[in-house]
């Protein structure tokens, strides 16, 4: 067999110790593994006379030859020469590579164990045929912690040998089994160089049915892991196209709406302090919380389409065992996991807990304050005082730290604080929202983890967008709460914060929006039936305020043509933060970049490749009512742009006009043909309500009654021209 044809995918290392082989026959075990598809075998026997070793190796060689698979001998050049097998595997304390090569010749396969970059480069330089990189995890036979390098160590070695220009085949070894093989491979592989396979010992030799065990491992090795498809795809896209940083803002609203519409399960294994608060935050954002710290339950819960939060705020030995069970269950189900390493740098116990959890499974999101993230990265000097947030790093160091950790773990990392940093290892974002008030009450970081879990459960295919959407939802709600006149301290902040979380959700979820186009003072005398446009807009603004429908307002060249008319100003003030934008423009259409990218306007056909390439659900459209002037210019162009962006447009016929009345009818006919709904203010309002049982019905009926006279006049004055 040619060296380049060797299949390293599943590399079997033998072990005849009673603890692993038991009373099974080694030849039989190897035969079964070969039948399953093992592509290379290493005979590794620490004890035994030379003669005995040669006999055993000879017997094995007969079997491997039958399957056209190479047999290597661990450490013993003499045994390999005596048997005439295909090569050897040497460790750092064994015979050196150059001598072994001289003795065995160029055709022999020689592999070398390496556990750091220097050893790896030396082995590649010396002409090793493959590297055995490890130890990945501690095993009963390998407990020398100096050599335990984890997946981060494997990846570091692969990156360095790729940078040095070597393509030497590589497998990793140490504690690899069916429960971790996909994650080990996923997290170990660099962009430039991946592993060719994994070496296993007890996962096959110690299995009750070695053939079934090897078949299972091979099937896991050959398919992508159930998690993290978005990062794999993104890094591929990046290396192929150097894709630019995606514009996330248009994608935020749809995530908030997706949580509202799918009510995802947020399974919290959280600390004793925040159970109730985190559950209320989950409800406020539209998720379905379950606070369950019992690991055995996770297998069932993981199948319900939600996400898991592991928050080690009040960790204890039982808790740790439970987290591991749940982590395994969620990884197997391919559902997301958010890890909140609360107080990670406060005690030795917590530092160890972080290591244990990180070695036990794949974490989609790691979220913590600065001290916690430093500790997760491996800063052993970090001494946190309790669970509180404090900061010593510069902005660029924070950004670099989250990016490096995300890159290393192939996940999304969030560092919270006054400014938050988020990275998927490729791009890094800084978020300046939030309020210091969040630091005055306990558990805000923890309930942010819960919020993230719900978003990521709804948008697993684009985790970083989901995470940022959750953070914006959470932090903007906190800002709005903090600004409320009824909030005077941490006590009043909490209920207001829950209310604002829920309010943002309801506003975003409704999908109904209104646009007030250029109703300015200077147009007054020129516009046909201008007072009717104003009275219908008043009615619309009053109703929008009752129904909590976001409002977008523009003016055309405000400096010259004046502000929105004074009659509407008190209503805009009353609408308060429902007025999501009040912008001046020179462009005729209201579809300005600041409006098009507003979270309320989900991206559709105009939303750019980012939207469709990275979200699993189709983007949602909004239903937008338009009033204002002039019908045939700004109103027409706004409506056409909205339609083009995939939104539904309702042109309120008793609320739009032009200088010449003849223009109006033509404009409306054109918009109708383009797909807009041309309707009246009253019809739109009743369609919005849908049901007289809604709580706002009475208030809207009052508006309709109070404005009945103006509505009549507007219909008569304006609609005569709009057939
Ligand atoms: N000074 C600040 N200004 C604005 N936002 C802040 C400030 N401090 C914290 N936040 C926000 O508060 C939230 C929690 O972050 P923090 O770093 O306080 O978490 P934490 O220490 O893990 O909290 P806890 O342990 O109480 O759960 C984040 O959304 C963060 O952006
Ligand atoms: C105060 C506290 N102690 C352990 S967990 C926790 C909640 C905030 O992290």
UniProtKB/TrEMBL annotation:
Residue span(s) of domain Thiamine phosphate synthase/TenI: 10-204
Cofactor(s) in the UniProt record: Mg(2+)
Catalysed conversion reaction: 5-(2-hydroxyethyl)-4-methylthiazole + ATP = 4-methyl-5-(2-phosphooxyethyl)-thiazole + ADP + H(+); 2-(2-carboxy-4-methylthiazol-5-yl)ethyl phosphate + 4-amino-2-methyl-5-(diphosphooxymethyl)pyrimidine + 2 H(+) = thiamine phosphate + CO2 + diphosphate; 2-[(2R,5Z)-2-carboxy-4-methylthiazol-5(2H)-ylidene]ethyl phosphate + 4-amino-2-methyl-5-(diphosphooxymethyl)pyrimidine + 2 H(+) = thiamine phosphate + CO2 + diphosphate; 4-methyl-5-(2-phosphooxyethyl)-thiazole + 4-amino-2-methyl-5-(diphosphooxymethyl)pyrimidine + H(+) = thiamine phosphate + diphosphate
A Pfam cross-reference name: HK
Leader peptide range in chain numbering: none
Pathways involved: Cofactor biosynthesis; thiamine diphosphate biosynthesis; thiamine phosphate from 4-amino-2-methyl-5-diphosphomethylpyrimidine and 4-methyl-5-(2-phosphoethyl)-thiazole: step 1/1; Cofactor biosynthesis; thiamine diphosphate biosynthesis; 4-methyl-5-(2-phosphoethyl)-thiazole from 5-(2-hydroxyethyl)-4-methylthiazole: step 1/1
SUPFAM superfamilies referenced in this protein's UniProt entry, alphabetically: Isochorismatase-like hydrolases, Ribokinase-like, Thiamin phosphate synthase
Keywords, alphabetical: ATP-binding, Kinase, Magnesium, Metal-binding, Nucleotide-binding, Thiamine biosynthesis, Transferase
InterPro entries attached to this UniProt entry: Aldolase_TIM, Hyethyz_kinase, Isochorismatase-like_dom, Isochorismatase-like_sf, Ribokinase-like, ThiamineP_synth_sf, ThiamineP_synth_TenI, TMP_synthase
Family matches, as Gene3D superfamilies: 3.40.1190.20, Aldolase class I (3.20.20.70), Isochorismatase-like (3.40.50.850)
Domain Isochorismatase-like span(s) in chain numbering: 515-682
Record-linked PANTHER family: THIAMINE BIOSYNTHETIC BIFUNCTIONAL ENZYME (PTHR20857:SF23), THIAMINE-PHOSPHATE PYROPHOSPHORYLASE (PTHR20857)
Similarity-based family: Belongs to the isochorismatase family.
Protein name as annotated: Hydroxyethylthiazole kinase
Species of provenance: Humicola insolens
């Amino acid at each position: 067999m040619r060296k380049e044809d060797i299949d390293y995918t599943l590399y079997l290392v033998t072990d005849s110790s009673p603890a692993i082989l038991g009373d099974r026959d080694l030849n039989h075990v190897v035969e079964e593994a070969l039948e399953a598809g093992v592509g290379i075998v290493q005979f590794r026997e620490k004890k035994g006379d030379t003669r005995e070793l040669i006999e055993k190796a000879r017997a094995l060689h007969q079997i491997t030859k039958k399957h056209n698979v190479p047999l290597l001998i661990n450490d013993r050049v003499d045994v390999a020469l005596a048997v005439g097998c295909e090569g050897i595997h040497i460790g750092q304390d064994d015979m050196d590579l150059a001598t072994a090569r001289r003795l065995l010749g160029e055709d022999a396969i020689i592999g070398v164990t390496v556990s750091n970059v220097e050893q790896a480069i030396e082995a590649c330089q010396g002409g090793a045929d493959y590297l055995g990189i490890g130890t990945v995890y501690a095993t009963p036979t390998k407990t020398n912690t100096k050599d335990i390098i984890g997946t981060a160590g494997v990846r570091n070695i692969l990156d360095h040998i790729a940078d040095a220009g070597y393509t030497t085949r590589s497998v990793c070894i140490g504690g690899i089994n069916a429960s971790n093989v996909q994650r080990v491979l996923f997290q170990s592989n660099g962009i430039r160089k991946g592993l060719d396979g994994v070496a296993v010992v007890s996962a096959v030799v110690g299995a009750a049915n070695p053939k079934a065990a090897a078949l299972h491992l091979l099937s896991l090795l050959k398919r992508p892991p159930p998690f993290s498809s978005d990062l794999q795809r993104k890094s591929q896209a990046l290396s192929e196209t150097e894709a630019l940083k995606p514009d996330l803002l248009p994608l935020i609203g749809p995530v908030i709406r997706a949580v509202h519409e799918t009510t995802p399960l947020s399974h919290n294994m959280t600390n004793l302090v925040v159970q109730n608060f985190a559950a209320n935050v989950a409800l406020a954002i539209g998720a379905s919380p379950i606070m369950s710290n019992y690991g055995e339950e996770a297998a069932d819960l993981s199948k319900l389409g939600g996400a898991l939060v592991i928050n080690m705020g009040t960790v204890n030995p039982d808790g740790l065992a439970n987290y591991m069970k749940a982590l395994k269950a969620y990884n197997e189900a391919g559902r997301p996991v958010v890890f909140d390493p609360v107080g990670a740098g406060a005690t030795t116990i917590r530092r160890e807990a972080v290591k244990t959890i990180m070695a036990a499974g794949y974490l989609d999101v790691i979220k913590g304050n600065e001290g916690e993230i430093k500790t997760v990265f491996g800063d052993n000097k970090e001494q946190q005082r309790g669970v509180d947030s404090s900061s010593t790093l510069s902005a660029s160091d924070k950004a670099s730290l989250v990016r490096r950790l995300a890159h290393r773990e192939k996940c999304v990392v969030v560092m919270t604080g006054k400014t938050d940093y988020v990275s998927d290892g490729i791009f890094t974002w800084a978020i300046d929202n939030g309020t210091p008030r969040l630091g005055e009450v306990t558990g805000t970081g923890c309930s942010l983890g819960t919020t993230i879990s719900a978003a990521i459960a709804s948008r697993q295919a684009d985790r970083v967008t989901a995470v940022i959407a959750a953070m914006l939802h959470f932090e903007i709600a906190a800002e709005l709460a903090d600004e409320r006149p009824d909030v005077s301290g941490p006590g009043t902040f909490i209920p207001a914060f829950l209310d604002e979380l829920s309010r943002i959700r309801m506003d975003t979820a409704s999908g109904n929006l209104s646009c007030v186009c250029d109703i300015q003072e200077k147009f007054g005398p020129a516009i046909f039936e201008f007072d009717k446009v104003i009275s219908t807009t008043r009615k619309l603004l009053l109703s929008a305020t009752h129904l909590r429908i976001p409002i977008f307002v523009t003016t055309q060249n405000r400096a010259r043509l004046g502000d929105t008319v004074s009659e509407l100003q008190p209503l805009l003030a009353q609408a308060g933060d429902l007025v999501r934008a009040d912008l001046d423009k020179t462009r005729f259409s209201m579809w300005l970049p600041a409006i098009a990218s507003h979270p309320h306007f989900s991206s559709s056909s105009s939303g750019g490749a980012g939207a469709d390439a990275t979200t699993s659900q189709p983007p949602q459209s909004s239903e937008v009512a338009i009033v204002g002037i002039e019908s045939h210019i700004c109103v027409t162009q706004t409506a056409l742009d909205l339609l083009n962006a995939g939104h539904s447009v309702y042109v309120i016929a008793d609320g739009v006009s032009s200088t010449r009345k003849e223009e109006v009818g033509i404009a409306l006919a054109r918009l109708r043909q383009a797909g807009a709904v041309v309707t009246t203010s009253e019809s739109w309002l009743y369609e919005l309500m849908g049901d007289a049982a809604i709580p706002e019905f009475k208030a809207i009926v009052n508006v309709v009654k109070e404005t009945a006279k103006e509505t009549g006049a507007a219909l008569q004055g304006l609609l005569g021209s709009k057939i």
